[in-house]
Amino acid sequence: MPKMKTKRAAAKRFKATGSGKLKRNKAYRRHILTKKSPKTKRNLRKATLVDETNVKSMKQILPYI
Fold first, then answer.
1. Chain centroid offset of residue 36 CA
2. Which end of the chain has less Cβ packing within 10 Å, N or C?
3. How far is CA 29 from CA 11, 14, 44, in A?
4. Measured between alpha carbons, how far is 34 from 2 in angstroms, rounded to an integer?
5. Nearest-angstrom CA–CA distance, 33 and 30
6. Is 49 helix (H, G, I), strand (E, B) or coil?
7. Burial 9-24 (b: 16+ CB within 10 A, else e)
8. pLDDT of 65 over the 90 cut
9. Contact indicator for 22, 15 with CB cutoff of 8 Å
10. pLDDT (tens digit, 9 = 90+) per residue, 1-41?
11. Are the C-beta atoms of residues 36 and 57 closer than 8 Å to each other?
């Protein structure tokens, strides 16, 4: 059986933590920032974990992470 291919677009966007959970950056911080409060923009800087409902499909497209 051949090796599975990793989806490279996903590999650039997600990293695995030490315990095996997936870490991602938050959306909505590219443009139209003038109407967002400083608190909102500050919280969008922080990375967060991928939701549990999406982990199964993420593991399929990232088999070696």
1. 22
2. N
3. 20, 17, 7
4. 50
5. 8
6. strand
7. ebeeebeeeeeeebeb
8. no
9. yes
10. 899 999 999 999 999 999 999 999 999 999 999 999 999 99
11. no
